[in-house]
Prior knowledge:
Blueprint: E1 2-6, H1 10-22, E2 26-30, H2 33-42, E3 47-51, H3 59-69, E4 75-79, H4 84-93, E5 97-100, H5 105-134, H6 139-151, H7 158-165, H8 169-181, E6 185-190, E7 198-203
Parallel strand pairs: 1-2, 1-3, 3-4, 4-5
Antiparallel strand pairs: 6-7
Amino acid sequence: MKILIIDNDESLRYMLTEFCKHANWESDTAENGRQGVDKFLQGTYDVILVDYHMPEMDGLQTVREIRKHNENIPILVLTVDERQEVADRFIEEGATDFALKPVKAPDLISRIRLHVQIANMKHVKKEEEDVFTAKGISKGTLQQIAEFLKKNRDPYPVDAISKEIGLAYPTVYRYLMYLLEEGKVKQVVSHQKIGRPKKLYKWYTH
């Protein structure tokens, strides 16, 4: 994991670098917001730590600038200012969280870990949603068909499922093919006395 530390206080930059070493993380430092944004655009980071009061470009401007380029990276603001309106302004600009100075290593490390975890979960969720969108699959419809099959243990033909849940036959068929491909549904062939064998579908229980 790599952390970008943006703070004009040299002793604090050193201390935060030591925190990162302690947690076995890599870190880069910048002396002000402008330098920090430049470094961010040139490198790859997992978390950004930003000081509030800095010359040239303060913490608010820095957060705003970074958010123009990246919506997801966790940005933790470090400040001595305890006022609620300051916190609100940072959240409005897109900061993820903030810690009051002086910061303590265990608190900061656990916050960083938590926010990286949340960011990763969001990323996975977005990837899943992109897959659904690409395949023209709606999560709600998929759930509706899955719930019906889970509740009813017997295998059902497409027309019966379509009738029971009130969705068009082609829609149900398309979703069943998707679930079949995902290994969630099993196809059972029922041999009729008259006519062609009928394909039935049931929820696949391992």
